[in-house]
Amino acid sequence: MATVSVVLATLMAVPAQAADKVVLMLNWYVYGEHAPFYYGKAKGIYAAEGIDLEIQEGRGSAATTQAVAAKTANFGYVDVPTMMRAAIKGAPVVATGVLLQTSPMSAMGFVEKNIRKPEDIKGKTVAITPADSMTQIWPLFLKKTGLKESDFQTVAGDGQTKLNAVINGQADLLLGYVMDQSMKIKDATGKDVYPIKFADYGINMVSSGIIANTDFVKGNADLVRRFMSATTKAVEAAEKDAKAAAQAILDANPKGGKIDTLTQGFELTIPLYRTAETKNKRPFQVTDQNMTDTVNLLVEYGGLEAKAKENPKAFYTNDYLPKGDS
User: Fold this and answer.
1) Is the model's pTM score more than 0.85?
2) How far apart are CA 65 and CA 59, in angstroms?
3) Cβ proximity of 198 and 103 under 8 Å
4) Residue 15 exposed, middle or buried by CB count within 10 Å (0-12, 13-18, 19+)
5) Cβ-based neighbours of 295, under 8 Å, separated by 6 or more
6) Are 205 and 104 in contact (CB under 8 A)?
7) Helices assigned H by DSSP within 179-311
8) Euclidean distance between CA atoms 147 and 140, whole angstroms
9) Among 210-214, 304-308, 321-325, whose mean pLDDT is lowest?
10) Cα distances (angstroms) measured from residue 270 to each of 78, 101, 147, 204, 264
11) What is the per-residue pLDDT across 218-236, written as a single tens digit (0 to 9) for each?
């Protein structure tokens, strides 16, 4: 009996292994799309994988990609096409999971304007931000839908100017993400927005995903695997309770928005997680075809160097994702 007591005392004296400190930098200031990360942290999903998660807001996907390349953040949540443009120029980064497998790009205007299909854009004014990802793909949308530049007017400005143009009636539509700019407009005006989604017209591109430094991935395979496992579980849990997931944002950051539009923004994000090919898969399980299509579109329209087409698999890996279907 005494031996058992000694063994128990010895076991109790051994300290629990410290959790790994992990920094995840977001693509931008917090909005509804980011709910799963906050929910996963609040629900102890990351802690259960031995991870002490710190979530940092970002200042754009390019800046977050730079931070991950420089190892000032362990992981980034960024626009994967933006990461590709950096990687082809030598940045040591790779996507360890592609979450948004359907593009959130759209042309959106107030519901009351009744602009529901590409034909309705004729004679209208569209607000754009020159050189951003949506404006680069816009010519492809026009080509796919039979529209011409002469069919409508454009006004140009930065992201806030673009929002203000629609809010103040200087433009009928803007190019934006279905779960982002639409919620900013609703927060400002209380009015609903209708998006004409690029994806509905055959523009098959991935969007946001998790990235990491390639050297970090090689040297910390177990940690990357645990992080992607926790993040997969966090997304799955958040999908089942969108409002609670949105509330987790506000619990961590009380100035992070309004519960109604955070919830709605996240609900608009969920359908983007999968394509017809991955509808029965767990989150992040992107197909090779989806990534190849994305690379091809970006080379043709998005300013990605042509050599990217030689090896699309260089930009991503599914090797660290939990196995199985949803």
Assistant:
1) yes
2) 10
3) yes
4) exposed
5) 84, 304, 308, 309, 312, 315
6) no
7) 181-189, 214-219, 221-240, 242-252, 259-269, 288-301
8) 10
9) 321-325
10) 16, 10, 29, 17, 10
11) 999 999 999 999 999 999 9
